[in-house]
Here is the input.
Amino acid sequence: MSLGSKESRDYAKALLSGMIVPTLLIALFLVSARATLSPAAAPVKAVPAPTVTYLAGSSYGSSEDREFFWALVDGRDEDKRHTIGSTDGRAQRLISRALRRDGGKFLYLRVDGRDYIVRDAGTVSSASEMVKPMEELGKKMGELGGRQGVLGGRQGELGGAQGMLGARQAELAARQVKLSLRIHSRERDGLSTAALEREKRDIDEEMRECSEKQTELGRRQTELGAQQTKLGAIQSRYGAEMSRVSADVEKRMRRLAQESIQSGQAVELTDDDA
Here is the structure.
């Protein structure tokens, strides 16, 4: 009788006795779980935000009407500036040129296709007061986004730990299958299985410990997920509030632009400035 035939019959008997199938299913499940777990953080759902243009510094703002653009600029030169408003490529080029010529704080405007710079202290001060709600809300959104990022990092670390545990559980499950086969074979031949039984108990204990750790990691992931959900809801409210505030600032900035042009405080930029 060949060894291969003996092992085949032993394996078949083990299957019939119900010793192997459950363990194999567990192993397959854990291997599958390992493939799906990743150390990368679960993606945080992006929160809709108003249309913004970022320059060198920080900037917030929106403009659905492409005939009107505005930007409040504060900076000593092109590389060090704080800008808030709604701009496009053309506006950014003009702002950069204005900063190279003369830094400081000014208001850029485009009305009906014509570009202007306003340096009048009173007008710039009025514009600064208008945009304060946007700046404060933008700061809150940024801080909240930082908290979401930290939570995402912690979720990623937990996911990595879960993946490693899953891999170990899959390895242990495979060893359980082999041990079960060896134990059954030795029992059939009337040989001692004490050493194998001890090894199997050790594996069973480690499997139990891994399972407890997975449960704890899952609990912590759930807690972090609940925190992310709360922060996401707050961020969504901030986004809606930013849209409302931006629209209000846009209307007020339009009136300020018209007043500046009519009073002559707004200096039109020539083709040489484009």
Summary: The longest helix spans residues 194-263. The two ends are 94 Å apart (CA to CA). The helical segments are 3-16, 21-36, 89-101, 121-188, 194-263. Strands lie at 68-77, 80-86, 104-111, 114-118, 266-268.
